[in-house]
Amino acid sequence: MAFPIDALRAEFPALALEDDGQPRIYLDNPAGTQVPRRVAEAVSCCLLETNANLGGQFKTSRLSGNVVDDAHEAMAVFLGARSPREIIIGPSMTTLTFHLSRSICRDYKPGDEIIVTAMDHEGNISPWLEIARDKGLEIRWLPFNRETWQIEPDDLRALLSDRTRLLCLNYASNLTGSINDVKALAAMARDAGATVFVDAVQLAPHRLVDVQDLGCDFLACSSYKFFGPHLGIVWGREDVLADLYAYKCRCSDAGLPHRFETGTPQIELLAGLTATVDHYAWLGEVAGGTGARRDLIATAYSASADYEEPMTNRLIEALKSMHGTAVFGITNPNRVHQRVPTISFRHAVKKPAEIAGSLAGDNVFVWDGHNYAYQVVKHLELPEDEGVVRIGLASYNSEKEIEAVIKSIERAII
Questions:
Q1: Cα 398-170-117 angle, rounded to 5 deg
Q2: Which partner from 37, 91, 322, 339 sits 20 to 30 angstroms from 264, CA to CA?
Q3: What is the CATH number of the domain that holds 160?
């Protein structure tokens, strides 16, 4: 069946907003998406009707506890986890990674090695650089291939040794959009005795995540990148989390996952998180899916990918046809399934900030700069203070909007 784009767009109030008669075109999605009405309503309801701290015997406190439990259960279903005990929720992926790096590396010894990639967001690089400096660990840099735009197994194999303790790997690049074969790379690392920490922040808005199938030990994502509130989520295998030391208050809950969730949670945002998962289940049903919640979520992802990929190819081909423009990432239309619809480019004359500013004048929202893909920009030998123009599609974007941004770019680079 046809993708239900009209029904989907009707769920997002922000998509109907205009500025001085110009509709807003949200193509800034890799940094954060708009939210469906159900998410905002869930946050509002929590604040207005069940607002209380946790642990009390009175009704609002008990209801708040239910909100927290429901969010962990929803994310367990969303990521394919075995149990909500494997779901850690906090302020952001970067904050959680910094926090967990201290626990993960607690028993590492000077000279032990951590592999980080030249393809990652700083949220999956800087925490490991810092803990390595604190503990005298060695950092090994894993490049990505400039022809395939992916991390190749042979390059990882060359770095693995009996001193490798941890591989930090991204699922999809927030600059090039390339998707890595995480399952194969994780298997190589674990065969070498290493722990695997995966950043799926850019993958989760566009592809179904199955943590049990991937074979990694940890996987992080951010709900505000997939139509939810500003929260970070880390899945960890229960047997790994159970053996991991938790830095927490002495009197805090020592059970999983709460011992890794310091302080009072953002309860109203957790209400929005459950509603975010409900949004995917709703979309799966509208797109013709049946079955349990996880099945509907899978249908939503499949239908969204089928809808996004032709628009991705259309935008890439248009950019390639513009004189002086270079696209960084997979451009072969037959490989579109190996990338998410995050497209970065530069022009030979016009700087990224100039182009993004011109698009903003047309009420087209895009990003410029390194976008915290700092090492990617360095690896590509691009000016670090300029970076790229980054355009990111979401399932609520329309073909009409893609044609509008193409025309806007053409005007910007004249």
A1: 130
A2: 37
A3: 3.40.640.10
* Gap between the terminal Cα atoms of the chain: 40
Distance in angstroms (rounded) separating the CA atoms of residues 169 and 255 = 28
248 and 104 in a single domain? The answer is yes
Question: What's the one-letter identity of residue 103?
Answer: S
**Could you tell me if 396 and 381 lie in one domain?**
yes
- Supply 101's token pair: 């790096």
Distance CA(196)–CA(188), nearest Å, equals 10
Q: What's the predicted TM-score (pTM) here?
A: 0.97
Could you tell me which residues are beta bridge partners of residue 346? 326
Q: Quick check: 168 and 130 in contact, CB under 8 A? A: no
Task: Assess whether 201 and 78 both reside in one domain.
Answer: yes
User: Is residue 90 a contact partner of residue 79, using CB atoms and an 8 Å limit?
Assistant: no
Q: Is 187 in the same domain as 64?
A: yes
Q: Are residue 92 and residue 214 in the same domain, yes or no?
A: yes
CB-CB contact of 128 with 80 (8 Å): no
Same domain, 87 and 210: yes
Along the 414 residues of the chain, how does pLDDT read in single tens digits? 899 999 999 999 999 999 999 999 999 999 999 999 999 999 999 999 999 999 999 999 999 999 999 999 999 999 999 999 999 999 999 999 999 999 999 999 999 999 999 999 999 999 999 999 999 999 999 999 999 999 999 999 999 999 999 999 999 999 999 999 999 999 999 999 999 999 999 999 999 999 999 999 999 999 999 999 999 999 999 999 999 999 999 999 999 999 999 999 999 999 999 999 999 999 999 999 999 999 999 999 999 999 999 999 999 999 999 999 999 999 999 999 999 999 999 999 999 999 999 999 999 999 999 999 999 999 999 999 999 999 999 999 999 999 999 999 999 998
Does 296 map to a domain? no
Same domain, 155 and 89: yes
From the list 83, 69, 81, 82, the residue with the least C-alpha distance to 261 is 69
Residue 326 lies in a domain: yes
Q: Looking at residue 330, which CATH number applies to its domain?
A: 3.90.1150.10
